[in-house]
Amino acid sequence: MSEKRKVDANSKNEQLEQFRVDDQGKPMTTNQGLKVAEDEFSLKAGERGPTLMEDFHFREKMTHFDHERIPERIVHARGFAAHGEFELYESMKEYTKAGFLQDPSVKTPVFVRFSTVAGSRGSAETVRDARGFATKFYTEEGNYDLVGNNIPVFFIQDAIKFPDLVHALKPEPHNEMPQAASAHDTFWDFIANNQESAHMVMWAMSDRSIPRSFRMMEGFGVHTFRFVNEEGQAHFVKFHWKPVLGIHSLVWDEAQKISGKDPDFHRGDLWDSIENGDFPEYELGVQLIKEADEFNFDFDVLDPTKLWPEEDVPVKIIGKMTLNRNVDNVFAETEQVAFHPGHVVPGIDFTNDPLLQGRLFSYTDTQLIRLGGPNFHELPINRPVCPFHNNQRDGYGRQTINRGQVSYHKNSLAANTPAPVSEEEGGFVHYQEKVEGRKVRSRSESFKDHFSQATMFWNSMSEPEKNHIIEAFSFELGKVESKSVQQQVVDMFANVNLDLAKAFADAIGATPPQKGGSEVTKSSPALSQENTTKKPDTRKVGVIIGHNFNGPDVKSVLDSLKAEGIQPELISNKLGKVKGSDHIELEIDHTFLTGESVLFDAIYAVGGSDVDKKFEKDAKYFMNEAFSHFKPIGATHEGKKLVEEDMKNSPGVVVEDHTDSFTKKFIEAISAHRHWDRKVI
After folding, report:
1. Which of 476, 502, 530 is the last residue of a domain?
2. Residue 376 near residue 382 (C-beta atoms within 8 A)
3. What is the count of structural domains for the chain?
4. 539 is in an annotated binding site
5. How far is CA 454 from CA 199, 451, 457, 512, in A?
6. Looking at the annotation, which residues are catalytic?
7. Domain shared by 592 and 514, yes or no
8. Other CB atoms within 10 A of residue 614 CB
9. What are the Polar residues biased-composition ranges (predicted)?
10. What does pTM read for this prediction?
11. 73 labeled binding residue
């Protein structure tokens, strides 16, 4: 480097030095330099009361967080969406006056966006992460947004901690790694030091965080809301989306490989299913608790780290959503859609859940920077189907051309219009809940049990699911460099289950805990995917086929699979047509290079009498990998040669030539999704 370059570099470094700050060991302050006395709790009217607008520290912290990145979402950046409709099974008039929940003959248009939380817009889709499940109902009373996740609880109890959670989860700032992953030091340091996260972490380490597809994952509103009927009577309510195809997941090795082979796997699956007419369906369920029963449970109904066990509070199925149209333009629709839990209609109201209270501020604040100003509601995807009139004017992105001279209320020049309307005329009136208490930054004692439901979740899992959770902890913490953080997490989860903590402590070389455990014996069968719906519909089967296959038998099997809604796709060493007996020809969909076993739900080996050694080698790799991922495997005729001896007679492996018998057994194997009792070496 020349002397002049050295001087310039030093000069620039000196120029930057005044902006460098070391926060370690310093007292916390606001951006104005005011020392902060409390950073764990937002300011509320009483310990279980609503968050106050007066809380300048919360607003500064959350506003700064909401505006950290442009233009993609800070969280949920990687997403895909579709249009559809919702139809009610029965009137909910007894519980709510919400118009779209009154008449089963009315179909309500919806727009649904699925997403991962942690990764950037360009990240892979099969990473271990929670998934967003956000639904916009375009009702005649205005837009209603049910903004949830595929996990019913969350990491934190108070929204003021959300920036801290996401900062810890995102790539570490000193090197911007890792992308779309929680297997690193700062995330697990946050978990160990914020133990309210225990329940959510159990879900995140389970199979729920690596779903097979958006079509096969549950959705939850997460928070406790209120239903309010025409008489003003209220019920606490939680929302559930139940996929008609059941809840199914990937295995971790498979998920990692798909991230490399097809980072668009989930969006491609959703797009293709709609294009094929296999419309994804979800039933809407609600859990209802009378206000008089608010304190009759061993958990606080307002705690977002707690679920309501379905065995204690049954889910009432009230309707079905069908996604039947893909977007025309991803940017205009999927990226510009703006969800907000505060977009409600009469009959749906809020509670004092402190995480929900903060989201009611944060979502609008986020849209202001992400979509360029206050008129994001005028973008086509966000516009309600009903008219809207008010005195808001101008601003970035304004599309409405308002006529007349009046833009204020009250007025005489426009006969005092637009004017508020009464509750009887459909005006939204907040539920009149009595609120009184000291202004405090604290948390209710009823929020301080962090481990009992985490233990209940563990108790509810099948043995394969428990093994997957142990493997997930072992992988994630195996990536953590800090021995201290590893040990803290081991000690923390000893409070959930001692055997769990000992198992992953052994895997990562930490000191196994000698005490801990939980006296909780309760379980909830509804939490285990072992008890989910199991159907063959829309499953993708990779058919390995070569020249001179048995034409009539294979065609019969393929036709039978299609009749059950299964999608066979043909794989060979070359694209083009493959010829079988009786002049039957089939078109190849993938080669061994462009198709991978991880992209299919099952493998059917047909083979052929005219295949070479390279074909056999590639085919056996497909079969072995699918076998190791516990997937169904079928083989007939020459395809039987591709099945290794140690695979035969294993659960989920069907090897025989009798067409009708083979087809029936193979479809049953596909319906099971995975065969966990298989011995995989």
Report:
1. 530
2. yes
3. 3
4. no
5. 4, 5, 5, 19
6. 76, 149
7. no
8. 10
9. 520-531
10. 0.92
11. yes
